[in-house]
Every structure is written in structure tokens, then in C-alpha cells.
Amino acid sequence: MISRNNSIKNFWTIFFGVIALLAIASAIVIGVVAANKIAFMRMSVVDDENSYKVSQENGYRSSLYLACDSMKNLDANLGKIAVSNDTAHQTQMLAKVVIHANQVNQSLSNLPFAESDKLASCQKFVNQTQDYATYLLGKLSRGEALTADERVALKSLDAVATNLYDFLQEYASSDSGLFMTNGNGLNNVGSLSDSFDEVDDNAFAYEKLIYDGPFSDSIEEKVLKTDKTVSAEEGGKIVSELFGENKFVSEINNKGSLYLYDTQAGRVYLTKNGKVAQYEAYNEASGQVSVDCDKCIAVAEEFCRKLGYDVKGVWISKTQDFVTYVNCATVIDGVIVYPDLIKVAVDCASGEVVGMEARAYLINHCDWSVDFGDVTQSDAQTAVDGALKVTNVAKALIEKNGEHYVCYEFQCQDGDRQYYVYVDSKTGKEVEIFKVISNTEGYTVI
């Protein structure tokens, strides 16, 4: 009886938790849309003398971009749940599915659609996905595990979410992705309705910066701290030794104080500890690819060493607009220390660094103690879903919810889908999963 009461209690705890999350998500969606109605849009610049139309356009575009982002996150979490073997982790991701599905629906409801069968199919898919995730949350709360059939269903939903994300992303980045200012006048429903009708029926069959690798967004809310302070003049001398002649521009206070300097090649952001936190070249990459990935990694590593960072290239994106993005991190005894992450952009036409950002390294770096556990690689791999093909194994120190874990990193494939699965080397339990998402910027790990 006690066990049954606890199960009921867990169910209602999760149920009301999901309801609360939906309320929060709704508030966030409404707030974001309202705040961005007069904001500058990142994919299209609206140039129209009619301020009302411009305001309306910006509101619609905000909703469209939010729908894209929410569908991307829905896609990622569906895929990760389908290959996760950890109940707690599954519960967290199912709750996120509920939230993102709700955000997609609210964002689409803010757009001036004409009614169509395909739009109805999209809304039906999102609603059913949200309902299914809620149902599975109830099962997990009762101590039941996901069945093989339920995993297959999740993969089918993931495939649909991928198709819809690809469609929305392509539409949002196209010139036709305008509503009020594309020459069709007020009350125009845009070409989005027509575009939806062109989506293949198979897309709804239920049976997809990169430059950001694993853990690249792990320091968004953290602040740079300094244990000593150099003056702007002293900082200028440091920049001079590294980049040549420079001019002090200003002091910037954004999640920590930085000095900004202009050099002949680009802008340099220096911490008050005298470390380069960011570099932005003035000239953008152009030309044809003539520097291969191995060379880009070597260039990135050498640039970091020049700035006093002892790191190695651990993750590399596909080339995008003649730039290859290399993620570098501290490596201790073969263990990648992901909190110490530095991102370097290399022009693969000239082989020169055109950008660098070291905020994560500067915030997190310390004298790391890498204590790898006793779980063997073969035992750890049993925590990886059998449907995944392991293509590479590494060792990594990762951070999740403020805790650090020394893990096996399993790079995996499931058809054309790529995942990173992290298994604790001390407990043999799954800690984290990332899915690689293709988008207009290359590939993003989320």
C-alpha cells in the first residue's frame, strides 16, 4: 500500500509539475513574442515605410523563429529519449518535449495561416506528441519502463519533427518567408500556407554555430571573475605583444569586466586578469577551401598556445562559409575536460584565425583532478542503447547541473542520426545524451 501511495504521489507530482512547466512556457512564449515585435530580425531586414506593417511583420517573424527553435528542441529531445536507458534522464527529456510541443503550437497560432490539411496535420502531430509524452511521464512515475514499441514510436515522432524542423528552417531563411511586406499587402497569409501544402505526405508518417560541439553552451549564466586587476594601459601592452599596435576603445561590463582594444587585424577583448577572452577579425573568410581539417586544428591549437592556453582540438565542425570551427579543451591523461572549452574559427582559405572565444575556459579552469572510475569500457557500453552503433569512444570530464562527472564518451550513429552518449565511469549509468542537429549554421549538438 505504501508503494502504491508513493507511485500515485509521484504521478501527481510529475503531472502538476508538467502543468506548471506549461504555464511557464506559455508565459515565456508570450513574453518573447511581445518583446521582439519591434526588434531587429536576424534572418530578414524589413524595409517598409508603413510602420504598422513593419511592426506586424516583426511580430510574425518572431513567432516563426520561435516555432523553428522550439521544433528543433522538440526534435532533439525526442531523439535522445528514444536512445536513453536512464529513467531519470528520460523523465527530464519528456518534460521538455511537453514544453517545446506547447511552444510550437503557441508560436504557430500567432502566424497568419490559411487553413489547410497540412497545417492541420502539423498541429495534430504536435498535440499528439505532447499527449504521448505526458502519457509516458505517467508510466515512468509508476515505476514502469519504456517498452521497445514505445521507443520505436518515439523514433517515428522524431523523424516527423526532423522533417518539420527542416521545412520551417528552410522557409524562415528564405526570401519568401515574409508575411506583411512581401508585396502581397495587408492581411496576407504569406506563402507559408502554400509551402505547407507542398510538404510531402510522408513527412507525417509516424512509424532531423556547427560550430558548437558538446557542452558549448554550459556557461551561459556564469560570470567572469578576476583574482587580480591590470589597468587598461597595462592591458594594452599585453595586446601589443600578442597582436601588435592597438588602441583602447572602452571597458565593457557584461557578465564580467573586459577591456576592448582595436588592432589592425581585429578586436580583442581582454579580462582584467590580462587574458584574451575573445578575438574578432575584421576581415571575413572568403575564397575557396585550401586548408584541410587537420591543418585547421593545428592552427587553432597554435593560436591558443600563443595566448597562453594549453588546450587541444577535440571537436570540429564541417566547413561553413569557408570557416572551420574548432572546439579546443584541456586534456588531462587522455580525458577531455569539457568545462575548459575554447572555440576557434579558422579561415580554411587562408589558414588564419578569424575568431576565438574563451569565456568557458576562463570561468571554469582550475587544477582539475581527473579521477577515472573502475567501470570498464565494455561495461559502460552496456548503458548505451543497442540500436546505436558506437563509432568512437573517448574519455571526458563533463558538468551537469553543477556536478562534475568523469565519463566515457560514446559517439554513435543510428542511420543518418548522430548522438553523443556519456556514461559515468564510476557508476556505469547514463549521465547525458546529445543529438547532432543539422541547420543553416552547420551542425549543432543539443
Overview of this structure, please?
The protein is built from 10 helices and 13 strands. 41% of the residues lie in helices and 24% in strands. The chain is an alpha+beta fold and 446 residues long. The two termini are 41 Å apart. The model is unreliable at 1-9, 27-48, 181-190 and 201-211 (pLDDT under 50).
Write down the Rg.
Answer: 24 Å
Helix-strand string = HHHHHHHEEEEHEEEEHHEEEEE
Principal-axis shape equals: globular
Q: Find the count of extended strands (DSSP E, 2+ residues).
A: 13
The overall pLDDT, averaged over residues, is: 76
Number of helices: 10
Instruction: Show unreliable segments.
Output: 1-9, 27-48, 181-190, 201-211
How large a portion of the residues is in β-strands, by DSSP E? 15-25%
Q: What structural class do you assign from the helix and strand content?
A: alpha+beta
Largest sheet: 13 strands, mixed
What's the end-to-end separation, in Å? Answer: 41 Å
How helical, in percent, are the residues?
A: 40-55%
Summarize the structure.
By secondary structure, the chain is of the alpha+beta class. The protein is built from 10 helices and 13 strands. Helices cover about 40% and strands about 25% of the residues.
